[in-house]
Amino acid sequence: MASEYLFPPQPQATLAVVGEDRLFPVARIFCVGRNYVEHAKEMGNEVDREAPFYFLKPTIGMAHSGAAVPYAPGTRDLHHEMELVVAIGEPAFRIGTEAAQSVVYGYACGLDMTRRDLQQEGKDKRRPWDFGKAFENGAVLGPITPAGSVPSLDGRRIVLKVNGEIRQDAHLDDLVWKIDELISHLSRYYHLMPGDLIFTGTPAGVGPVVAGDVLEGTIDGLEPVKLTIGPAE
Q: Is the pTM here over 0.90, yes or no?
C-alpha cells in the first residue's frame, strides 16, 4: 500500500518523564524574554513591567540531555542560557492565575542556546530574533519531573556550569513574571494544549561556549540537563 506522504514525516518530538515509562509528546516551545532583572541589565535592557514577551523555538530543533551537538552554523558567538521549563498537561484558554497551576504537568531543566551575534543583528535592524533563537539543537531539554513530585519551587537554585565552573547562579524566586502569570498571559493569545513547553527565562551570567565545552544545568529537585559542544560542521 502506497504511503499517503511524499516522504517520511519527522518523528514526534518527545521527552522522558521521571518515574514514567511513557513519553511526553511535545507540541510547541514558547520562550519568555528578559524575565530576570540582572540578565536584562547585563544585556543592556530593562524588564518590561507591563507584560511578558515571547519568542518560539521549533520542536525539530530539540536536543535531549546528554547529547553532543555540533557548534551551531552561521555564528561565531554561541551562548548558553539556563532555564526552568514548564510542561503543560491540560488545555487552557483565558485561564486565570489562580487556576493556572492546575494545567501544569511538570518541570524540566532546559538550555536556550542562542546565536548571540545573529540575535543582536536582528535587534539592531529591528527584525525578528528567529535566526538567533530558532535553529537546530537550539532547545536542549532534560527529563520532566511531574508537578506532584515538586510541591513548591520556592527558594530553588538554578545553576549552569561549563566545564565544571559556575557561569549562572540564581534562584527561581528571582523570576519577574511567575509561572502562573506566564500561563495566564499566554493563554489570552493561544489555546494552550497538552505538550506545550514554556521556557521561563534565564538569569544573569550568560556567555559564549566553544567546541569541546561540557555544559551542565541544574535546578534543585529536578533532573539536570547536560550538553557537549562539538566542532562546527
A: yes
